[in-house]
Automatic annotation (TrEMBL):
Residues 47-73 are annotated as: Disordered. It holds the Pfam family IAT_beta. Residues 119-212 form the Inverse autotransporter beta-domain domain. This is Inverse autotransporter beta-domain domain-containing protein.
Length: 619
């Protein structure tokens, strides 16, 4: 590993040495016996060059040599070797193989009517020979909407025929949009530059996968909608990065000497995608830039650009942006380039963003049914403590008013519900508390989803009353009961009933959290918690598996807890064949942890401790 690292370091050092030597003047080819280099004065018309670049004669060996002429000739000036790297009014031929281009960093600030942007850039030459340059271009951008982007590019530029530059480049782009989505893109471009004119074209190829916006639920989800429970598929908003092309032409309009320029640009662009439903984006952009070179306070090779840009398309409308950009060379001072040569260091112009757009998805709805019972939820009514006539009008008459299956959702948003009458349920009625999660399935497609009722568990207080009276085919889920005689009650046998994830506290000395007084109960009693009740935590006269849910045999008593109640924690008169009683807890109750007769059912992993009469498990 150390050997490889040493070889890499030596290789890099060799490259740096090679680049530095390639830029040095081959002094042995030029100086005279006095140690003086003779160079051509640009004002000498006899040089027969009118391209604005100083030239020396070339021999057949292809190497530029200083022309030997008499000292008295007014067409030549003397420049000592020590002065080669100083800026002079003459455009001296400083290097035997042409000019040298050095790395730079640039920073921009762009306030606009839609957003405020800032970006940073580093350009580093990787290889050059005086007329050509391969370079790396790395950029980062951020704006005040929370979006940011990085661009990693390679470019190649070459001076052609001493009067124009040909360039090609490619970038890998990565962007986080204001919607917190990430997109990647490849960008390719070609450009042509002269001192006065320039033109370029770019192609943008993004990844094609759309992304959800703002956590939009694009999969199936259960909703309470229009008085019922439905499963909705589709919908939401998605964002898509677009393929695109643009083309730009620019011109030098005015100049104040060689170091101050006013340039103008006009471009057109088009972006689209193969995915349907997204708007195409086509428009035009105009830009003006005042460019200043070699500023004294920033150093030789520096630049200051001040500009303004106006853009329009049918999707994003009019966007106006101002621009301030500072470019500073890195390392040694840059050589005294001609105006064409310094364009080799111009910033590559391309779209600053991965362009994306959004669309809303169509939706499809179907009725949802209860996964466990297989029954419809029917008409849905939401009530809370502010609902008039609770419970006599709304709760007890919900089924009658609906004319069939119905669901009452009790919300905690207005606080505790105090009732002075029992809630008498009818067949096929459901009562669900806010905060409860309910597994549902599509009645047509069989699509699975979860209904999450917004809010927290509601509390119902019914002092001295049987708070909820069950009937066949009813469910009570996700409620909290305080200080009732019996919170959930039935004086007769009820079948195919679900009592799930309710809490019971503070019932009277003769009361229970659940009390099913006579007959055999069939259904599921799961996940309930009874604490601090004067009587039994849960009291069931008989438990069997005669009823079925959606074709599945019922008879499950599991996951219940009875803690610190006055009498028995869990009392089951008998449980017959087919019933499953498991994973229950009964601790520190006044009498028995469990009081039950096993009549053929299965009991496993039921635990307890600290109960007054013992019986810390089921037989």
């Amino acid at each position: 590993m150390k050997c490889i690292f040493s070889q890499l370091c030596c290789g890099l050092l060799s490259l740096v040495t090679l680049f530095s030597l390639s830029g040095k003047l081959q002094a042995e080819d030029i100086p005279n016996s006095e140690g003086v280099v003779r160079t051509i004065n640009l004002s000498d018309e006899s040089a027969n060059h009118n391209d604005g670049v100083a030239h020396a004669n070339e021999d057949n060996d292809g190497v530029a040599h200083a022309e030997p002429v008499p000292h008295s000739s007014p067409s030549y000036v003397e420049t000592r070797v020590d002065d080669i790297f100083r800026r002079t009014p003459q455009r001296a031929l400083r290097y035997a193989h042409g000019p040298r281009w050095d790395a730079y960093t640039a920073w921009s600030f762009k306030p606009g009517n839609e957003r405020v942007m800032g970006d940073g850039q580093v350009m580093v030459p990787l290889w050059q020979n005086g007329t050509s340059m391969l370079f790396a271009d790395v950029r980062g951008q951020i704006d005040d909407t929370g979006a940011y982007e990085g661009n990693w590019g390679l470019g190649f530029r070459q001076i052609r025929n001493d009067n124009w530059i040909l360039g090609v480049y490619g970038f890998f782009d990565r962007r986080k949009t204001r919607n917190d989505n990430y997109f990647s893109q490849a960008t390719f471009g070609i450009e042509a530059l002269t001192v006065e004119w320039e033109a370029r074209a770019n192609v943008y190829i993004p990844d094609s996968a759309p992304k959800a916006v703002g956590g939009s639920a694009l999969g199936p989800r259960a909703l309470i909608f229009n008085g019922g429970v439905i499963i909705r598929q589709g919908g939401g908003i998605i964002e898509q990065a677009l393929y695109g092309v643009d083309a730009e032409v620019g011109k030098l309009f005015y100049e104040w000497g060689p170091d101050v320029e006013l340039r103008g640009f006009l471009s057109v662009f088009h972006f689209n995608t193969q995915n349907r439903g997204f708007a195409n984006i086509s428009g035009a952009r105009g830009r003006a830039e005042l460019r200043m070179y070699d500023l004294n306070f920033l150093g030789e090779g520096s630049r200051l650009n001040i500009g303004a840009e106006l853009q329009w398309d049918e999707v994003r409308n009019t966007q106006a942006t101002a621009m301030l950009r500072v470019q500073i060379p890195l390392g040694r001072k840059q050589s005294n380039h001609t105006r064409l040569q310094r364009r080799m260091l111009d910033r590559i112009v391309r779209d600053v963003d991965i362009v994306s757009t959004q669309k809303s998805l169509a939706t499809s709805d179907e009725e949802a049914t209860d996964v466990l019972t297989g029954r419809s939820f029917g008409n849905v009514t939401v009530v809370d403590a502010s609902t008039p006539d609770i419970p006599t009008t709304v709760l007890t008459n919900a089924v009658a008013g609906a004319g069939g299956p119905s669901t009452v959702i009790i919300s905690d948003r207005k606080g505790q519900i105090n009732t002075t009458a029992s809630i008498v349920m009818g067949q096929f009625q459901n009562i669900i508390g806010s905060g409860y999660s309910q597994a549902v399935v599509g009645a047509v497609t069989g699509t699975n989803a979860v209904l999450v009722v917004p809010g927290s568990r509601p509390n119902i207080s019914a002092p001295g009353l049987n708070a909820v009276i069950l009937a066949d085919d009813t469910t009570v889920r996700g409620l909290g009961f305080i200080a009732s005689s019996n919170s959930i009650y039935s004086a007769v046998a009820v079948n195919r009933v679900v009592v799930d994830q309710n809490t019971f506290t503070g019932a009277t000395v003769t009361g229970s959290g659940i009390r099913l007084l006579t007959g055999a109960f069939s259904g599921n009693i799961t996940g309930n918690v009874a604490t601090g009740i004067g009587g039994d935590g849960i009291w069931v006269n008989g438990f069997d598996a005669a009823g079925t849910f959606n074709g599945i045999l019922g008879g499950r008593f599991s996951g219940n807890s009875a803690i610190s109640n006055g009498l028995d924690g869990i009392h089951i008169g008998s449980f017959s064949a087919g019933t499953l009683i498991f994973n229950n807890i009964s601790n520190q109750n006044g009498l028995n942890g469990y009081f039950a007769t096993n009549a053929g059912g299965t009991a496993t992993n039921n635990t307890g401790f600290g109960n007054g009469s013992g019986n810390n498990t089921l037989p």
